[in-house]
Automatic annotation (TrEMBL):
This is Glucosamine-6-phosphate deaminase. It comes from Pseudolactococcus insecticola. The keyword Nucleus does not apply. PROSITE patterns: GLC_GALNAC_ISOMERASE. Residues 26-220 form the Glucosamine/galactosamine-6-phosphate isomerase domain.
Length: 234
């Protein structure tokens, strides 16, 4: 696990963008993507670059159950706004939050991941150590599954909604086993509220109670943190 400390998000996004560019030059074709506030500046860097994704595939980590892609709180909508409308890909996969048969949907999503092995995965980090929506206690062997969001994650995500009650209570998430299969990963974390999770992920034991700690097992992961998020790491 390589840790890079940067002064701020903009600098961190540029570091992540440089790694992405190197991976593309080396032949990367399939990209695992995250939503949330963490990767927004990274996506701006991508949009403002001349990188071409028209022959590339993206696979997102997660989607809220119950939200249609046209809903402005859905992750599909977020990705359209922050990346896909400006940078067209050959194909973009996200779980279908409106699937009537969620069991079938998680199986179908695993089949998509198997058919398109991820070359480069972008991750954010929950303050409780989650990656994707793999909350503390999720088995490291999990593949795509339906998640009951924890109270802390619902509260953290309420900032994007008019009311906390509007935050969906479930999501479909890529599992930890699938995330670990990515050939390479970059995890970004900004702000003091992520400092404890960053510390546990980098310096702590590998434990299901801090899902991101499993990333210590991967041999091609770069963690990019700002001063506040990285205050407990060297
Ligand atoms: C979103 C995702 C989540 C977020 C995490 C951090 O697709 O996978 O794990 O990365 O909740 O969220 P932000 O970036 O909003 O702090």
């Amino acid at each position: 696990m390589k840790v890079i400390k940067v002064a701020n998000q903009l600098e961190g996004a540029k570091v992540a963008f440089d790694i992405l560019s190197e991976k593309i030059a080396a032949g990367a074709k399939t990209f695992g993507l995250a939503t949330g506030s963490t990767p927004v500046e990274f996506y701006n860097q991508v949009i403002n670059s001349n990188l071409d994704f028209t022959d590339k595939t993206s696979i997102n980590l997660d989607e809220y159950v119950g939200l249609d892609g046209s809903d402005d709180q859905s992750y599909r909508y977020f990705m359209n706004q922050h990346l896909f409308n400006e940078k067209p890909f050959h194909q973009n996969f996200l779980p279908n939050g409106k699937a009537t048969d969620l069991d079938a949907e998680v199986k179908a999503y695993d089949a998509i991941i198997d058919a398109h092995p991820i070359d480069f995965q972008i991750l954010g980090l929950g303050a409780n150590g989650h990656i994707g929506f793999n909350e503390p206690g999720t088995p490291f062997t999990a593949t795509t599954h339906v998640v009951d969001l924890t109270e802390s994650t619902i509260k953290a995500n309420a900032r994007f909604f008019d009311n906390e009650e509007d935050v969906p209570k479930q999501a479909i998430s890529m599992g930890i086993a699938s995330i670990l299969k990515s050939k390479s990963l970059v995890l970004m974390a900004w702000g003091a509220e992520k400092a404890d999770a960053v510390n546990g992920m980098v310096n702590g034991d590998i434990t299901e109670s801090l899902p991101a700690s499993v990333l210590q097992k991967h041999d091609d992961i770069v963690v990019i943190v700002d001063e506040a998020a990285g205050k407990f790491v060297k």
